[in-house]
Every structure is written in C-alpha cells, then in structure tokens.
Design goal:
Blueprint lengths: L1 E4 L4 H12 L4 E5 L6 H13 L5 E5 L5 H10 L4 E4 L6 H6 L1 H21 L4 E7 L22 H20 L2 E7 L1 E3 L17 H7 L6 E4 L11 E2 L1 E3 H17 L3 E5 L5 E2 H12 L5 E4 L14 H7 L7 H30 L1
Parallel strand pairs: 1-2, 1-4, 2-3, 4-5, 5-6, 6-11, 7-10, 8-13
Antiparallel strand pairs: 9-12
Helix pairs in contact: 1-2, 1-8, 3-5, 5-6, 7-9, 7-11, 9-11
Bound molecules: uridine-5'-diphosphate.
Uridine-5'-diphosphate binds next to helix 7 and strand 8.
C-alpha cells in the first residue's frame, strides 16, 4: 500500500489516480487545509470504477506523529509519496513561519514516523524553486541550489534531511524537482482548485470581461518580452511518481527534474489557450510580479536515462483538460455550496 500525503491537493490527487490506474492500494493523508474532501470522494468513486482498489483517507496533519504512527500500525505501507506542503511563493515571503512549520516540521515528523515504523522508501515532491535564479538553462540536476524565497528554502531543507536520513538510516528516495505543472486528468476526477489562484493557465481560464487576465511583465529579456517556463502535464508528472516507486525497489536513490525540456512564453501559452479553445480572453499587461525569473527550462535527460520517463501530453491537451476541469469545478462548487447551506439549515 502506498501512502500519499497531500493526496487531496492538485498534484497529490493526480498521483493517487495514477497509482490506482496501476492497480495499487492507496491511503491518502491530508489535513484539508488546502486540499478538498470532494476530491477524495471523487478519487474513491474513480477507484471503485477501476480495479476496486482500496482507498483509505486519514484527515490529519503530517506534524501529528501519533496519527502517523497509528496509520503506519494499521496500514501496511510500502512507500510514502510526500506532497503535503504549502506552496505559494508570495505567501511564504509574507508568512515564513507557516512554511517552516508546515513544510519542514511536517516533513521531519513524517520522516521520523517512517523510520520508527520501518518504512524506508520515499518519493518527494521538490521544486525547481530550489535552484533560484538560474545561472544557465536548461537547468540540470547539478545546477547550484540557491533558492530566493522561503518556499524554496523549505523544500531545499527537506531535500537535505532526506539525504541525511538516507545515509544514516538506510532510507531510499527519489526527489523530484518540478517545473510548471498544468492540466488535469482526462476523466476530470481532479484539477487545480486553489482558494487563492496564482497560476497561469487557471487564471487565463477564469478570466472574463469582469475579471480581465493580468499578464505580469512584457519587458523581460526573452523572445517576446514575457517570462519563459517549462509547462509539464500533471498526469505525465504523476506517472513519473509511480515509475519512481517501482524504480526504488531495485535501484539507488536519485534526484530528477520533471519538465518537458521545452520553454514557452506567457504570450505563447495565452495564444495556445485562445486557439485551442477557440475563445477570446480579455488581457491587460501589468507590471512584473516580484521574484519571477525570466526563464526556467528543465534539462530532462536524467529522467529519460534513469527512469525511462519523458513527457507525452502536448500542451493543447493539457489546456483542454484544464478547461474541462474548470467547468466541472463550477458544478462541484455548486454542490459544495448547497451542502453547506443544508448543513446550516
Ligand atoms: N503569470 C501571469 N499572470 C497570472 C499568473 C501567472 O502573467 O495571472 C505569469 C507569471 O508571471 C510567470 C508565468 O505566468 O511568468 C508562470 O507563473 P505561475 O504562477 O503559473 O508559475 P511559477 O512559474 O510562478 O511557478
């Protein structure tokens, strides 16, 4: 059985979906601070329609070591795929305490419970934010790590802890450093659902004449003046985690970038959304957003060499699935609203 922390969130839920598709039993641990119980319910329904896998859900925080110990005693966990974290760069600058407490203390508590209960495999969700402002692109895994915000600092600190635990206690790990994750699973079981939405594709999709899309900065030193990022589909990303779990059984620990190796500008993504969905999105050019590097692109050779993984889903399909999800989300939110009203009455 696989333990997925943060499995009620965007990336964790898609990882759960991929493990389920591959026939694994999954237990999701999530404190629902940013994740959603509706997503857990939808994953459960999806699993029942698949191969009848066992899906368990524990509503707890990774800092709650008694909940973790109980979980490890009652479930035979073979490996942990660890997503649970706060991940908003701006928020981390304003409220570093929240990030150090949730991300670092949560991860240390999880690692300690794993060691105490003899669980020795982890797949960890890290980020290209640990590289900071790049010295060169594409960024390979040997690029110096100099994060420029507390979010990146906390992820780097957890990478250090995992490596030290590996040396001392025989933990085996895959650390993934993600680039920009977009899209949704084709069945729309899950998708991006953040109370504060900061990401590019959902913000383009949410725009209308009352809420014009803000493009942050068109004066960067790039081909069209807007920032360049490496946009990777969430199901491609999820598949890498399942592959990493299988890989860890017989191989050594490793650190791998997950991206497509291709850079696209904000204007290019904006144009791709308009073209793919045949829509016109109202746009205004705004000043730069603080802390945005001009260009982040992954070197993906190691993912291919070590795991035999490379991205498959074209950006147009990610956009289509993200759009289908946005529509689904409106109905889910409608149901959630009705449920809350009924609970209130
Ligand atoms: N972006 C934008 N408008 C938005 C959200 C994002 O212009 O409403 C730009 C942002 O400045 C960056 C790129 O889109 O250049 C990707 O931002 P996102 O927040 O999706 O990911 P990040 O690279 O910050 O992790």
């Amino acid at each position: 059985m696989i333990l997925i922390t943060g499995g009620a969130g965007y990336i964790g839920s898609h990882s759960a979906i991929d493990f389920i598709k591959e026939g694994y039993d999954v237990v999701i641990l999530d404190n629902l601070s940013t994740g959603h119980i509706e997503i857990v319910d939808r994953i459960r329904a999806f699993a029942e329609n698949q191969k009848g896998n066992l899906i368990d859900f524990i509503n707890a925080d990774t800092r709650d070591s008694s909940a973790l110990n109980a979980l490890f005693k009652t479930h035979k966990i073979d490996a942990v795929v660890h997503f649970a974290a706060n991940s908003l760069v701006n928020e981390s600058v304003m409220n570093p305490r929240k990030y150090y407490e949730n991300n670092i203390l949560g991860s240390i508590s999880l690692l300690n419970s794993m060691m105490d209960n003899g669980v020795k495999k982890i797949v960890f969700s890290s980020t290209c934010a640990t590289y900071g402002e790049p010295d060169y692109v594409p960024i390979d895994e040997k690029h110096p790590q100099k994060p420029v915000n507390p979010y990146g600092n906390t992820k780097l600190a957890i990478e250090f802890a995992i490596k030290d635990y590996a040396k001392a206690y025989g933990l085996k790990y895959t650390i993934f450093r993600y680039f920009n994750v977009i899209g949704a699973d084709e069945d729309c079981v899950s998708g991006e659902w953040h109370d504060i939405e900061t990401h590019l594709v959902p913000n383009i999709l949410k725009a209308d004449k009352n809420k014009v899309f803000s493009l942050f900065g068109d004066d960067y030193d790039t081909k069209d003046g807007t920032c360049i990022r490496d946009y990777i589909d969430v199901m491609d990303l999820a598949r890498a985690h399942t592959m990493a779990y299988k890989y860890l059984d017989e191989n050594e620990s490793t650190i791998i970038n997950l991206g497509t190796g291709e850079g696209q500008s904000v204007k290019e993504i904006f144009a791709a959304v308009e073209k793919t969905l045949e829509i016109k999105v109202p746009l205004k050019i705004c000043p730069r957003r603080a802390g945005d590097p001009a260009k982040l692109i992954a070197e993906t050779q190691k993912a291919e060499d070590v795991l035999g993984w490379s991205s498959r889903v074209p950006v147009e399909i990610s956009i289509k699935n993200a759009c289908l999800w946005e529509k689904k989300l409106k109905t889910i939110k409608g149901i959630e609203y009705i449920n809350k009203q009924e609970a209130h009455n």
